[in-house]
Write a structure and sequence with these properties.
Blueprint (H helix, E strand, L loop, with lengths): L2 E3 L10 H10 L35 H17 L2 E3 L5 E8 L9 H16 L4 E8 L8 E3 L2 H7 L13 H11 L4 E6 L11 E5 L6 E11 L2 E10 L5 E9 L2 E2 L3 E5 L4 E7 L6 E6 L9 E5 L6 E5 L6 H10 L3 E3 L8 E6 L10 E6 L13 E3 L28 E6 L2 E9 L2 E6 L12 H16 L5 E6 L17 E5 L3 E4 L14 E7 L2 E9 L13 E3 L4 H9 L1 E2 L3 H30 L1
Amino acid sequence: MPVLFANPAGLWALLGIPLILLIHFLQRESRRIPVSTLFLLEHLDRESVKGRRFDRLRHSLPLWLQLLGVLLLCWLLSEPRWTAGQSVQRVVLVLDNSASMEAFREALRETFDRELPKLTRFVGTTEFTVLESSISGENLYRGTSVLELQKALESWKPGAGSHSPEQAIRVGRGIAGSEGTLVLVTDHPGDPLPFGALRLSVGTPIDNVGFSGLRVDAEEGKKVWRATLRNYAKTPQSRSWFLASGDRRTEARTVELAAGASHTLQGEFPEGSDRISLLLTPDRFTRDDRVDLVNPSPKALLVSRTGAPRIEPVVTGLIESLENTSQASGGESPDFWFASYNPLAPGDLPPVSVVLLDQEQVARRFFSGPIVAANHALVSDLDWQGLLARSTPSIPPAPGDTTLLWQGERSLVILREGLGVRQLIFNFDVVTSNAPRLPAFIILVHRFAAKLRTGKVVEESRNVELRQPLAIAHLTGPDAAPLQFLGEDTSFTLPLERARQLRAPSEPGFFRVEQGSVRLLHAAANFADTREGDFSEAGAISELGPLPKAIRERQTVTDPLRPLWILLLAALALVTWHCLGRGAKTEAATAT
């Protein structure tokens, strides 16, 4: 079994060997003793007559006993321990995958070079497993080499937003087992971790300035972009920025920001360009130093109406409030209708429509009873308590209808969905009610139109966040082509059965999604989690200090002969003392 020294400093005791040899090399200065005759000198050993100097080393029992004592003392002080060659330990490293970790890649490498070898000193084999704190389904590394682990992390790109690492720590504990070591590597100190995990923080406070928000508005027929700069530092900062569009770029402009201050930049899209990039002087955290913008263009919706004069004012107001929605004309096929329905003169309704009751004679009596909304996304968080609607005949319910709003026994709002049918039915007289003045009524129509817009297979342009899920309407069927993702640095094909897994890229930039020759999406992805740009609370801390000792005690055994060596050292001391005492008496007797 290999032997390891728990206290390598004990090896300094070996310096006692040259010290003892030096003492034995030194000879004491000779003394003159007058004698009456010379025959007594024949039995005396020759001695140095020049005082203290190096002479030949004389072999003596005390010398060898003292040398052996030094070796025993060095052995005891260095605390030898034995480890079996087949001993194995598991070390699981959970890497904080937050975007802020990108600023500390060099600190992470240096910390691993310093800390990881300490965990392997007393073990035959150490199995390392490296996971991301936002579970991705794959290990970043699994093996036994610290060097290979460091190489594997060179391609690691943290980019997630703020999140809890608890789930990853739970998975890590399952891999490490009860006896294994579990470490969360992050850049912020914090509260004690669950499941016996230890924290290894490699962060430091840094001064960061970055983009913290953006929007595009239509003003006087022009698209105006606005981007907010924020200084996260506790000291004033100065940064330069410029706008790039294609091969063109503006001159750099300087912005002065007070500590913790924000500043909004704004401008118009250059003529003939539908996308721009705003770039900031880079600092240590580069993720928020760039913003890419496309001129957003939601999918256009074409609407038609039945033309009932009584409900026309309400319909006109709703159409004007809907973004990028216009009246279908000529041979255009509308995406949905605003239809009227008279229960006293029933007829067919358009398959996709918002249906409003149209009655000439309306009762004066209002519906009574509490108003209750269903647990449905279309009416979630909408307040209908102020609705006043008159009691009128209703639209006959159909099998499969979903009631979104009740008042007493009456279904006020019905959602009808089926094969080729999608209808939002207001089952009360909207014109004589106060519904057009209620925000809930307008929001409900907008949500229904947004749902139709989402399902329309046509090109759109929008700005998204990094790694944002992308719900893109596409052609289906056995002959439909797969989706093509075309980014600045990566491109891939996605089968239709995995279309729901499509996400925006993890790095800022422009990208497109196409299906065959049809472009479905033109977009720009940007970093949007401003919490990751604040490094004021970052810090370095290590909870691994006691860990090497715990591993040593768990994976190794002490010298079983240690009590014997202590007794032997004591015996050597006694024998040496006895020999030196007897030699002194003999020398004194000879001198007299």
